[in-house]
Design goal:
four-stranded antiparallel beta sheet; mainly beta
């Protein structure tokens, strides 16, 4: 597996680097995203870069920023789910540390 993540918050999108040949990825990357609403949600999707063609979907999580404490780093495990509820299966979990600073 060659996993990477995309992160989307409102109109902003970021991508982690691709890690090659691992089923236990650790990205240790930091992204700065600007929030216009405390009610926004962060969507994280895990993909498998399988070479030529479309990447393989591995799971996603949606984190409502309203559930994150402000001005304090929040680390937690988030369940990865399917894009379609009718095809729900175990997609694993992802650990995220989120720091929500209100300016």
């Amino acid at each position: 597996m060659n996993p990477y993540c995309t992160l989307q918050l409102e109109s902003q999108t970021h991508q982690t680097r691709v890690l090659t040949k691992t089923t236990a990825p650790r990205w240790d990357q930091t992204f700065t995203l600007f929030v216009s609403s405390e009610h926004a949600t962060l969507e994280v999707i895990v993909w498998d870069s399988i070479g030529i063609g479309k990447p393989g979907f591995r799971g996603r999580c949606i984190v409502p920023l309203a559930e994150i404490s402000k001005d304090t780093p929040s680390t937690g495990w988030h369940k990865l789910t399917s894009l379609r509820p009718e095809k729900e299966k175990d997609h694993g979990d992802i650990s995220l540390t989120i720091l929500f600073l209100k300016t």
